[in-house]
TrEMBL record:
The lineage of its organism: Bacteria, Pseudomonadati, Pseudomonadota, Alphaproteobacteria, Sphingomonadales. Coiled coil: none annotated. GO terms for molecular function: oxidoreductase activity. InterPro entries: FAD/NAD-bd_sf, FAD/NAD-binding_dom, Ferredoxin-NADP_redctase_2. Keywords: Flavoprotein, Oxidoreductase. Residues 7-287 form the FAD/NAD(P)-binding domain. The keyword Flavoprotein applies. This is Thioredoxin reductase.
Amino acid sequence: MDEHIDDCIIIGAGPAGLTAAIYLARYHLSIRLFDCGTSRAAMIPCTRNHAGFPDGIKGTELLDRMGAQAAKYGALRENRKVERLERKDGVFVVDTDSGTWRARTVLLATGVVNRYPDTLPRPLHDEALSKDLLRYCPVCDGYEVTDKRVAVIGTGEHGTAEALFLRGFTADITLISPHGDHDLDDQCREKLADAGISHVAGPCGGFAMEGGQLAFDTANGRMAFDSVYPAMGSDVRSSLAQMAGAATSDEGCIAVGDHLETNVPGLFAAGDVVIGLDQISHAMGQAGVAATRIRNLLAEERPLRR
Ligand SMILES: Cc1cc2nc3c(=O)[nH]c(=O)nc-3n(C[C@H](O)[C@H](O)[C@H](O)COP(=O)(O)OP(=O)(O)OC[C@H]3O[C@@H](n4cnc5c(N)ncnc54)[C@H](O)[C@@H]3O)c2cc1C
């Protein structure tokens, strides 16, 4: 094992991890970023709500720019998947698929993975996403579906809440259950009826792009929409946090304090993996706070002086 100990290892090079890398590298700290190439930001065809880009910016371009900025100040990047994390004798041991590293502090910025119907093949999923026929984030791109024909694939309180949120952008919304019948209590049904949102039972299958829309089969026959939002929740990538002893919520979000520190000393988390708005701006803001707290924590252990 390499005996070198980094000041901070950041796991995840999405907007949160890269922002932290820029801050920490500019604090003259030795830092290392690990990433396995699955940022949610890389799925964004063009973000139009991220401040500073009036004509929008492609997710991969934003990540490239941030990566170049972090590298410019000395952040080292390893394109590897981290498989194990533990804190031993006050030092974090980070095991990857091809080597082990050690660090005084760790920032987890591992994000989440959106769920979508398993009847939607991945190549079609990706193509529909690139054409804005499939969307995941009403907060980000509800504006783009203004007065369009929209489906929300989901049910229960979560599906209802997403459909109601989108009602602020269009009157033509259908809530479609991903499986069989809907799981909607009286309150959800009342809210949907009040907002004029129809609901249709599933299952959803036979997805195809037809006439510039995304079409699929439902209990009411074949339906087609300008944009479809899966609202089936997400899987939070917090297993490394749990391995290291950090507390997580029932949904798996990493529990943190005001400065983004977990209950494990020296272990921080930022971005989608922490409960929050699941937005680039939020991920970046949290990362800036976490990075500065990490810097100050390290300065308590040894003076940081030039
Ligand atoms: C289709 C779509 C459109 C969106 N549009 C917008 C928008 O317009 N505006 C907006 O603000 N937000 C948008 N979002 C949300 C935005 O993408 C996320 O909020 C943001 O990417 C969160 O950043 P993050 O750094 O927390 O996580 P991520 O960007 O998901 O990055 C997490 C990183 O961790 C890495 N990782 C995970 N586990 C490991 C491991 N074990 N080892 C090594 N690396 C690991 C992954 O490879 C990944 O690169 C959109 C999301 C989607 C899916």
